[in-house]
Amino acid sequence: MIYPFIFSSLTTLIFGAALLAQWRRYPGARFTRDIGLVYLALAITPVLFYLREQSTGAVQLGALLGIFASGLAYVSLLIMGMAQLADRPLSRAHSLAVVGVLGVLMAYPLWQGDVSLAGAIAGSITVVVGLLAWRWLWSSQRSERWAGALLSAMGLIQCTQFLLGTEWVAAQMTANTLLRVVLGLVLLQTALQRAIAEAQRLRQQHEHLTQNAHQGIAIAYAQEIIYCNPAFLKIFGLRSLAEFSPEWMNAGIASDELAAVLGLRQQVLDGLLPEARWDGQRRRRDGALLRLRFAIWRTEWNGRAALQTVITDDTAQHDTLAAMLHQASHDELTGLPNRGALLRRLRERCQTPESFGLVLLDIDRFKLFNDAHGHSLGDEVLKTLAATLQRGLADTAEVSRLGSDGFALQGSNGAPASELAQRVRELLARPLILQTHEFFIDVSMGIALFPQTGGDAESLLRAANAAMHQAKKVAGTSVVVAEQRFVQGSGEVLEQEQALRSGISRREFSLAYQPKVDAASGALLGFEALARWHQPGVGPVNPVQFIGAAERTGLIGALGMLLLSQVCEQVVVWRDAGVQLVPVAVNVSPLQMLDPGFPQQVDSMLKRYGVAAQWITLEVTETAALDNMALAQAQLLQLRDLGLKVALDDFGTGFSSLDMLRTLPLSVVKIDRSLIDPMPAPEAVAVVQAICQLATALKLRVVAEGVETQEQAWAAHQAGCHEIQGYFYARPLTPEMAGQWLRAGACPKASATLVATT
Questions:
Q1: Residue-range domains of the chain with CATH
Q2: 194-228 pLDDT, tens per residue?
Q3: CA separation (Å) from 502 to 155, 509, 558, 559?
Q4: What is the pTM of this model?
């Protein structure tokens, strides 16, 4: 008698475990979980029946309660599992209701000790559930349609115990065990079929997404691409993957960049890196330049390790923004760099020890020419002259247009300014040939030399302009060299460097604070700390000069820490006075960014004065970031971890800024004043608005610096700038005046301006 029990329990236990294992592999087939638990409940039922028959007292009572619990679990989970199989899952409330009703139905006969009646009830419910499942699943073309019939047969056999008595239990149990085996096989087959169908659906869905993606997707073994989607072919201008060749794509890549990319790919393929990202310039199959972003990670393809590459084409966005920046920095009529670009270039060159000459050139009596021939022909003369200067001075000068009839020439490749002027004379000795006219013109030229005439861009321009006006007093094409210096404190370099060392040790430097106001409300949002040096016996020294001298002599670190300590001291004074603090921005030299210990020095300074990092902002120039991008990124990450915010100063001085905004951990972008100067001209507003939109997408705040007029302030606000800084609101303030601003908390002039403009 015991052997049928053992056979039934073991067989049912094995199939229950198999169903649960299938559910673990494919959780989507929840019916395998419920029916698997049903099988486990059935596996212990024969044991409980045997204990009830072979024991007395407490053991018999415990076996009876176990029969009730296993029977209730069996019937409840059976209903839920078959509902899941038929895609008619029960809600939680319905499931609880089923358990409650079944508990009442089965509790009474077991309480009376009539196990056969309880089994008959469970068998009847099994028959009903089987018939319903048979009906629901009959339309299915798979093996699951027979599950209901098998279940009903199991229920009928279970009812025979009530009709025929206990002498047939062994036969009944053997028959039911065989039916459970068949049902278990059917359910496992059904789960497998559904898993395969789901996998096919997901694969088709993935293929649909991949085939219709706008990003290029490719799978490669090392350098061999074995799959790509249509977007990949479209990006590179290919008709099929057979046309792709790493040779033509890598031909235009610098060897060091190519080696770095191949190294990253190999590290990802070897599992040393989880993924890698980079961007770069590539070529289409037809030779057109592309600006692409790459992301790769390791995957498996046909059982082999492979690289999955996702390519984003940023060419259109990059070219659009580059075109807008080019438009903002170039003259519309001649295509030459404009005044803003000239100033930016001069500032860059004045930060180097290399000497050069600046020539300002102005057409004589051009107003009379326009009056006599009309502005259209005058524009043609300007364009022809620009082309003549570019062509004739291509190897010796950088040509810019200052506006109206003025041009500027910067000597390059060591060409002396006097030589530039002589070549201009030779070029203008011949007529300017237009489509329908030929004209001879005279020009007046003024020459300024760096560093003899001036040590900064503004001084050079003033000197060359003054010399050019002197040249206009001479008939015909003439040249005058500036004879006086326009910058105080520009004595011998050695004397200035010695004075600088003394000035740092004696703390002769002070700070002025230029406010930054909210573009919308006029509220005070912060200050920029500007270094000032009043050299004893000389007077005020231009910051460009003494900062340049500090960088040349290696004193920039000591000077930078001195200025930062003065900022911290002032913040403590304001804090102790009980005024509401705002962040103070401190400029960082490119050489300071090259010092690996710079973040630790800043942290020590803040701790020394007890100043929270939130009240200090560091402004890093684009040049500082570009000189060593990897080191700059590492330094800025450390500064950000200390709680300091970092602003990118003079944004817009180069197209590389587009990559820096995305790569560096920045909080603020300051738009260079050369892009603010032309506002509110529509093209200038469009460029600033594009930068603001880009910064907003990267969650960066935008500061417009160099705002000098009410119209510029309103245009910057409308373009999307968050903060405004410039002489229109306030010149650099003394600490006392800055304290008054802190107490007021806003700029009345800014609020009145916004109200009046609105």
A1: 2-207 (1.20.1070), 216-313 (3.30.450.20), 319-481 (3.30.70.270), 493-750 (3.20.20.450)
A2: 777 777 777 777 677 777 788 899 999 877 888 88
A3: 104, 11, 12, 11
A4: 0.40
